Amino acid sequence: MRIELGTGQLGWEPLAPAGTAVELIHGPQGGYHLFGRVRFDTLGPDVYIRFRVTPAEGGAAVNDPNDRIRLTEGRGLLRTSAGWETSSAQLVILVTVSAPATVVGRRFRLEATVTASPGIETPPAASVTREIVVVDET
C-alpha cells in the first residue's frame, strides 16, 4: 500500500521525510492552521482522514487528532491514474495555538491516517508521518 503526505493550498506540494517548511496560516476567524493533502493507492472511493500534529521533541498534539474528514469520490476525493488524492487542501486546525511564536521555527511531526469507510473491502487503514518545520512567511 502506498500513501503520501503533502501540503499546498492551490496544488500538491510534496513533503520530504524531514525538514520541509510548512506555512502557518492565520485563518479569517482568528485561529491558525496548516494545509494537508494525501495521496494513496488502494483505500478509495470513500475514506476518513485524520491528521495529528505533535512536537518533534514529544508532547501533546496541537490539533484535535480526533477530528476526521470524510471524503468520497467527487466530494473531496479525486481518482488519479495512481489511485486517489484529496482534491483540495484539508485544513489542519491548530486548536492549542494562540500566537505564531508558539510554533514558528519549531519542528513537528505531521501524521495522516486514511481509513476506508466501513463495508469497503480494502486494507482497513494506512498512515504516514513527516517531520516539518512551521514557518510564517506573511
Key phrases:
138 residues; twelve-stranded mixed β-sheet; mainly beta; 53% strand; Immunoglobulin-like; globular
Would you mind describing this structure in some detail?
The chain is an all-beta fold and 138 residues long. It has a single domain (3-135), classed as Sandwich (Immunoglobulin-like). The protein contains no helices and twelve strands.
Helix percentage: under 10%
Number of domains: 1
- The CATH architecture can be named as Sandwich
Taking all Cα atoms into account, the compactness measure Rg is 15 Å
Break the fold down into its secondary structure elements and pairings.
Elements lengths: L2 E5 L5 E2 L3 E6 L1 E2 L5 E9 L5 E10 L13 E5 L2 E5 L2 E4 L3 E4 L13 E10 L8 E11 L3
Parallel strand pairs: 3-12, 7-8
Antiparallel strand pairs: 1-2, 1-5, 4-5, 5-9, 5-10, 6-7, 6-11, 8-9, 11-12
